[in-house]
Amino acid sequence: MLDSKPKTPTKSKIYWLLQVVGWSSIIFIETINYTFFIIGEFKWDYLQQFFIYSAVGLIVSHFYKLLFIRLEVFERSLSRIWIRAFF
């Protein structure tokens, strides 16, 4: 019998999905901004450069989370997380 209950994605899958979508958005926005508004022309070199920067950003932000942010921080209320982020 098929289970009609939809599967909820794990926190790990949501984390990686948001990381990839976020950093991909940076590539898209920077490509549009830099090539059309700053330089005025599109070059594949720019896209490659933004991709590399975003890949580095994804890796650095992931290791930052692993090394410096304890898991119990994310179990707190949102207001406490923001306070912790600034102080």
Strand content: under 5%
Measured between the Cα atoms of the first and last residue, the distance is 52 Å
Structural Rg: 18 Å
The helix/strand series, from N terminus to C terminus, equals HHH
What does it look like?
With 87 residues, the chain is mainly alpha-helical. Helix content is 72%, strand content 0%. The chain contains 3 helices and no strands. It has helices at 11-39, 44-68, 78-86.
Keyword list:
87 residues, single chain, mainly alpha, 3 helices
Question: In brief, what are we looking at here?
Answer:
It contains three helices and no strands. By secondary structure, it is an all-alpha fold.
SSE order and pairing:
Blueprint: H1 11-39, H2 44-68, H3 78-86
Helix pairs in contact: 1-2
